Structure formats: C-alpha cells, structure tokens
Amino acid sequence: MAAQKINEAHEHISKGEKCLKTSFTKWKPDFDSAASEYSKAAVCFKNAKQYDQAKDAYLKEAECHTENKTVHVFLRAIEQAGMMMKVSLSAQKKMPEAIQYIEKACMMYMENGTPDTAAMALDRAGKLIEPINLEKAVDLYQKAAGVFENEDRLRQAVELLGKASRLLVRLKRLDEAAVALQKEKNMYKEIENFPMCFKKTTAQVLVHLHRADYVAADKCVRESYSLPGYSGSEDSVAMETLLQGYDEQDEDQVFRVCNSPLLKYMDNDYAKLAISLRVPGGGKKKAPAAPQGGASGAQTANDEEDEYEGGLC
C-alpha cells in the first residue's frame, strides 16, 4: 500500500514539473495545475508516512501559489508543510525556508490590501518556528503586532506583544523585555484594561529587579498609582512589600512575596523570574530579637569584654 502511494506521488510530481516547463507553444508555466499536482503528491507521501517528501511537495505547492499570486491558498500549503516538519525531526532543518515563504506571502497580503491576513500569517509563522528558534519567533510576533497596531487593532496587537515579551524573558534579553512590557502596558491602558496593566506592572518589577535596577522597578509602581483601582489593590500591596524587602535585603520578605499565589500563578516565564529572584549581596534573614537581660545579656557583655581583652592592638 505504501509503495503504491509513493509511486502515485512521484507521478504527480512528474506531472507538476511538466506543468512548469515552457516551450515554443507554451510561453508561461502553468502554476495552478502544478500546484494541484504537488498538493496531490504531498497527500500521497503523507499517507505513505514519507513526511520529509510530503513537506517538500507542500513547499513546492506553496511556491507555485506565490508565483501565481494565489495567496488565498498559499498559507494552507505552508501550514501543511509545517505539520510535516513537526512530525519529521530531520525536516525541521527546512523550517527557516518555510518561514521565508510565509514572510513573502505576508508582503503579498500587504500589497493586496489585506494587512489583517498578513498579521495572522506572521502569527502562524511564529508558532511554527517557536519550538526551534525563539529569536525568530520574537521577530515574527513583533512584526505581526506592528501590523495590527497600524490598523488600530490594539487588542490583537497587545496579545502578540505579550508573546514576544515572554519569549524575550525566556531568552534573558531583559532590557528588551522591559521595553516591550512598557509598550504592552501602554496599550492596555489605552483600551482601558486596567487589571492587565496591574499584571504588567508586576512583570515589569520582576524584570527590572533581575536587571538589578531598583529605581526603574520603583518607578513602574509609582506610575501605576495613576491607574484606576491600583492603589490598595492586591497587586500594589505585593509590589510595595517586594520592593521594601529587596531594598532592605530582607530575604524572608522577598521569598514570601515571590512565592505567593499572585506571582506563582503568573505566566510561566514571569513565575520563574519570581521564584529565582534574590536580594542583593545574598540578603539577610531577620534575626530574632534578643531577650533583655538574663543569661543572654550577660553573655553579650562578656563577649564584648573578650573582644578587647589584651588591649586594642
């Protein structure tokens, strides 16, 4: 059965290549027919579990669609190729090639006056490449957010910015993450989603403290007091307590806040920042108050006498 499907696939490939050939009587390649043949070949290869070859056939189909500017079916072919790459580990080496096709399609969408479709395509591309290349995924999510922002689709834009911010944290590119989070927060403020502004303030504080920038972290909290409902909220109390503990190098206080449900149940990348936060200089734990007088008081006095026994030299 598998062998039969493979033979059938090769027949479709041959027909597709024939459609692309030109001659004295045929001046232009027949991209539509070629795309159809490559699509049929890909299905045959997939049924035969020849995923690498199925991926190649889908990419050939996609290339035909880009040449013929039939963008409405282009993404389907690319997504199918991406699925084959997920199934086949060796095919993942070709993933950057697939992403290039998607970016090319997005340019076509923009030129054809359908920026929303371009942004959605970039989002899909980000999801495809994220398991193997976080840096490229960040780039694609930010581009998609930019397209939506230009179209005043802020809710869609901020969601994609959020994906990019989390990946920047995962990549430990914290300076860039701080900038991205501020942009997210500004967008949420513009659409009046204040609870999300509170969450972004908490994320900002964690990022800035990991950057060892207490001043920037404190500034984020101070600015957030202008947001309706922030003052006295669970978020603001937690951040004030965290900043106080960090400033006073109180390890216990920082630990309590960072392991509270409010921070532990944030998005995973920010939760990891919380539980890994350490106070400057290794911190200190609050010592229990010493009892007044008694044996302990006498011992302290004796210790002070011993310290200077034999003179100051």
From TrEMBL:
Localization per Swiss-Prot or TrEMBL: Golgi apparatus; Membrane
Chain intervals with Acidic residues compositional bias: 302-313
Organism lineage string: Eukaryota, Metazoa, Chordata, Craniata, Vertebrata
UniProt keyword Calcium present: no
Binding partners and assembly: Interacts with RAB11FIP5. Interacts with VTI1A.
Organism annotation: Takifugu rubripes (Japanese pufferfish)
Membrane topology note: Peripheral membrane protein
GO terms for biological process, alphabetical: intracellular protein transport; vesicle-mediated transport
Name of the protein: Gamma-soluble NSF attachment protein
Compositional bias annotation for Low complexity: 288-301
Function: Required for vesicular transport between the endoplasmic reticulum and the Golgi apparatus.
One function term, GO molecular function aspect: syntaxin binding
